[in-house]
User: What shape does this take?
Amino acid sequence: MIALEKLLSIASPEISEGIEFDGRFPEDLKRLLKARNGFYAFESALYFRPIRSSGQHIGIIEWNEPGLWIGDYGFETAPFCFAEDVFGCQFGFLNEEIVNLDPETGTLSKVANNLESLATQILEDWRVLTGHAIARAWQTEHGPLGPEERLVPKTPFVLGGAFDLENLYAIDSVQGMKQRASFANQIRDFPDGTKVSLRVAD
Assistant: This one.
């Protein structure tokens, strides 16, 4: 767990103290959360959720409830999400692998076999995998992100929206995921090049 230990060495203090798992938690995620029960890293760009909700933070168990947001994507088998970058792109376990969920398209892509491998990739390419540069620039201009705030593009990235401050705003994490789930469902069966009229869910 060399990479995980290094990641924890640069992370924030833990978010919650209570340890109470259910059967969905893989063993390596249990070990990590026993060591640090929820944390931020890279100036809040990377957010590992605590096991259960604590204060203003939504815990992993509650975050994966189908009625909160993940059920809006209509996955046949949903990933078990535990962390995210500054844009709310989710890291989750699916079939014993770690996948990334693109919230704008609902696309799932494998990123690692285990948490140690994921931590290694993050430490090697943290600027890209966490969105740190934009997170830092946005917070320098607008102030710190709140506990459950992520940055969402006004014009979706998949529609050519720019990765710059003018195209970004802070939004509650649940609201941001639900809005983009609605968008992902609208464009799911569109062929490339289709003109899209964006309709935002309430």
Notes: The mean pLDDT is 94. Strands lie at 39-41, 46-48, 80-84, 90-94, 97-102, 107-112, 149-153, 168-172. The helical segments are 2-9, 27-35, 60-63, 115-124, 126-130, 132-142, 173-187.
